[in-house]
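Q: Convert this sequence to structure tokens.
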Amino acid sequence: MTVEMREGYEGTGPGAITPDGCPVELYERLPVGDEPDVVAAAVPAGAHILELGSGVGRMTHPLLERGFTVTVVDESADMLGRVRGARTICSPIEQLDLGGEKFDAVLLASFLVHAGDEELRRGLLRTCARHVAKDGCVLIQREGEDYHTNVPRERVDPSGFTIRIVSSQPAGNGANSVHVEYDFPDARWTHTFLARPLTKEQFESALEEAGLEVDAYLTPDRIWVRATAKA
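A:
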């Protein structure tokens, strides 16, 4: 089936590909890193987490195994079909409104805060603010400071595949077009997408605009952030 890609987004390789260029089978293969440990250390035990942009559940499943209750949101039914054990909601994140339902923690990972479209980013952060409990938190994953400058670069995963950030080129209006390749022994995927670099100051300003503020940078590289609603 042919999928109409959003402007500036493209994906190639075997299997279904979402409108923002994400290959579903690729994400089923990618291992999870230390992200679930970061999340688990930042929220109360047994918390109810709203995971925005869950994909196939790479983080969802480890969080469930750690005893959290997880509600996941993704606009791709193909992605959500791979999630097990969690409540699933198929919806664009920026349009999500669960009628006053609040969560102990809202998770916005996968660098989604760096959306190339500024209005989309504003919508994502407003969704976070709308669904976090008064005494809860929002956990956000940012790009590393050299994400767009240390290119090309590649990493060979211990499981035997290679991730290669081939390029990051200006695409206009402050966004970059990023091209990534994934080489496995039996398959190859590519993903091209728009990402907007944000300095620490720009990131914090974007949070403030949405009614949020930084509570703590959780990792020395400041990639993981815990935010709370402004008083």
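Residues 83 and 130 are 24 Å apart (CA to CA).
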